[in-house]
Each structure stands twice: as C-alpha cells, then as structure tokens.
Amino acid sequence: MATWLCVLLQGALRKWFFPGSAALYLIQDVPLTFAYIFAFRKGLVWGSRLAWMCLVVSAVLAVQALLQVIFGNLQLRTAVMGMHQYVYYLPILFIAPVCFNFKFRRRFVRWNLLIVVPMALIAALQSRAPKGAWINRTSAGEDTGLGGLGAGHVRATGTFNFTVSYALWCGFAVGLVMGEWLLAPNRRNFQSKAMLMICTMGAIVATLVSGSRVAVMLAALAFLGGFAAVIVTRNVRLIVRFSAVIILLPALVVISYFAAPASFSAVVDRFSGEQNQQSIEQRIDKMFTAFTWAAGYSGLGVGIGVGIPAANPGHVAFVLSENESIRIVEEMGTYTGTVLVLLRYTAGLGLLLLAFRALQLPQGHNLPHAVSLAFSAAPTIMVGDLTHSAPITATQAYFWSALILGALLFRREPVPATTVPLSKKRSL
After folding, report:
1. Which residues constitute the domain of residue 57?
2. CB of 355 within 8 A of CB of 347?
3. Number of domains making up the chain
4. Is 76 domain-assigned?
5. Which of 127, 166, 319, 346 has fewest C-beta within 10 Å?
6. Is residue 303 in some structural domain?
7. Roughly what angle, to the nearest 10 degrees, separates helices 92-99 and 48-71?
8. How far apart are CA 208 and CA 258, in angstroms?
9. Are 312 and 78 in contact (CB under 8 A)?
10. Whether the Cβ atoms of residue 169 and residue 396 lie closer than 8 Å to each other
C-alpha cells in the first residue's frame, strides 16, 4: 500500500513542493524494493510460470542491452534506465497478488474509492484555473495546455505529474465504481447508496473535466467492461444496477459541464469533427502497428533506454514526445522488441480472460470489478505506455492486474457469512 500511495502522491510532491527534484521520480521504488526483499525472503511469491517468464524476459533484455552497449552507441546509464523501466515492476505481478486476499482487496478498493472525490475536486480546480496557477504547476515545466482552447486552461493531471498517468487513473476509478454497483449491497465497501453515488459522480466528473481523450476512452472502456459483465452473468439484479448507472449518466454529464465548462467543451470538440476523428483513428492504428514500420530492423537497434525521458534529458537519436505512438525505441528496430510487443498483446488478452474468470468465481469470491478494470488496463499494457513512464504507469497497470490475480489466488478462502448469493448459479 505504501508503494501505491507513492504512486498517487509522487507527482504532487514533485510539482507542488519540490519542483525540479529528479530524485523523487523513483520515490515509489523505495517501499517497493523493501516489499520485494521481504517477499523473496519469506517465500511470498505466487505464479511460478509467470515468475519464470518474467525472469526469461529480463535475461533476454539484459543480454540485448549489454550487446548494445558493447557494439553500439548506447550509454550505460541509458541502458540501466531502460532495463529499469522494462523489468523492475514486473515482480508486482507475482508478489502483490499474495497480499490481495479478501480482506485486503476490500480495503484496497475502499481506500481508493475514498480518493475519488478529492481527486475530482483537484481536477476541476485545475481545469478552471489559469495555466500559470500554482495548482497547475509541473515538475519540469511540461506543457499540459489544450491546443486551440485559447483561454489558457490546461488538461487536468490531479496529483499526478502528467496527463497520461492521470488518464490511467480515471479508467481505474470508473472501473472501481462500476464494480461496486455490480456488487450485492451487503458486499459493497460503503453500505450507503448515497456514498456510492458520490463516488460515481466523482469518477465521471474527474474524467470529463480532464481535457484528455485518453482518459475519456479508458473510462468508456471501463464502463463497457461493466456492460460485458452484465451480459456474461445474465443476472437480472445486475441488469437493474447497471441500468441505474445509465440513468445517472446524463445528470453527471451536466454536473461535469458546470464544474469545468472549458475543459468539457474541449473534450467534446476533440472527439467531434472529421479531422479529429481521423486523428483518433490514425493514433490508435499507430499505437498497435507502428512497431512494424516506424524504424528499419537491425540486429541491435538503437538502444533499450533511448526515448525514455529520465534516461535522456537531452536530444538523442529519436525525439519521442507524448504524442509518439511507440515511445520506447527498443521496440522500433529490433526483433527482441517485436517479441516484447507480441508478449504484451498476449498479456492484455490473457488479462481479459482472467477477469471474466474472476467474475464467475462462486460463493462470494467473485470480483465484479475485474472486467471493468481489465477493459481499461489491457489496452494500456498492449500499447506500451507502461514502459514510457514506468514508475507510475506500469505500477498502476500491474496493481490492477494483481487485484484480479489476487481474487483468483484466494478463490478458496473462507468469505464472511453475510455474503448472500444473488442466484443459484452465481454469487455477486
């Protein structure tokens, strides 16, 4: 949990209290490292096949990086940072699930639901405030302005340092509230429907005032995941609960508009018009296919860490920005990189399958949040955003995945007697 809190607060510390402090870029690595050491010493490791696969990937990348340093122009510092981005957060996948038993899954979800409303308030204030306001500071003077808005407003980042990390959190927040709506009332983290409605409003408002198309698309995917869960279970009570969320949506959209009119209108504009729609289609296409044509193939490629801002503060062979479709050069010119991309696609599809399995677990073990979270996390894993800003994006995606894996790992754990099945087939 300490690592997760660092993920949420790292950006706030860097941009509001210690601007320019590069050391805080890796602040979440401190509790994570202690967690790794403790877990390996105590044998708290799950998923031997998954662990071995991660070790093989790490070994191959290490050999690749070593060859690039020896025979290419790759600097050792850049290679080390590249290895860090790719492999340091992989152990979360087979260590964190051991922590997510029924009790701690519930606690993790509850704490994150409590964060939703404050984050939405911060995002609304950022969207309404001028670009130069203190609340819109960034750690390195990054431009988060909405192009063409003309009013000096910015895309919201919440407590994160940049828009991509905040967009991923929006998908996570919507996934959590969708999962809560699909739970039986006696299994929800908050027994009060009013509290759940407030959290739902916070998640939707935080997304719609973000000014980010990625945030809206990930939130929409999380919502679609909730719909898929309803279809798969074919449970009447779930259909009723999902219908209640649909009924709430128009009111939440209106609230979002009045919370930050400029950002809300900018998001609508960025999804409308033939030119913007073509831009979205081209960007999605590049995200999934550009690794096959963005650079000519060679035995070594440019270098594993080239393109990572933390490894290359100055100008390098490739200048990669927020708008680049493939952000890590390792994947642009090597056969190893292509294999990594294919592995990520496999991992994303596998996460979706595991999410549906977690949904259909019996006797109160099921996790309705799983499908919504997987629908939002899988595209993130597949397109590779998790390696560009790995300390934040990878940690988020892997924690979501670990939450789903934890439900499967503890599927035989005794559950509280108050859990009431909703049908003879399934308990939700």
Report:
1. 2-409
2. no
3. 1
4. yes
5. 319
6. yes
7. 150
8. 11
9. yes
10. yes
Q: Residue 112: CB partners within 8 Å, gap ≥ 6?
A: 172, 173, 176
Residue 104: in which H helix or E strand, if any?
Answer: helix 102-128
Distances (CA, A) of 365 to 358, 404, 414, 427: 8, 11, 9, 8
Structure tokens at 306: 């080239």
Q: What distance in Å separates the CA atoms of residue 209 and residue 395, rounded to the nearest whole number?
A: 24
**What pLDDT does residue 68 have?**
87
Q: How confident is the model over 250-269, as pLDDT tens digits?
A: 887 888 777 777 777 777 77
pLDDT, tens only, 383-402 = 766 676 778 888 899 999 99
Nearest to 358 by CA among 102, 177, 184: 102
pLDDT digits (tens, 9 = 90+) for 181-228: 888 888 888 878 889 889 999 999 999 888 888 899 999 999 999 899
Cα angle 385, 399, 122 (rounded to 5 degrees) comes to 75
CB contact at 8 A, 170 and 206: yes
DSSP 330: G
Could you tell me if residue 417 is inside a domain? no
Indicate whether 424 belongs to any domain.
Answer: no
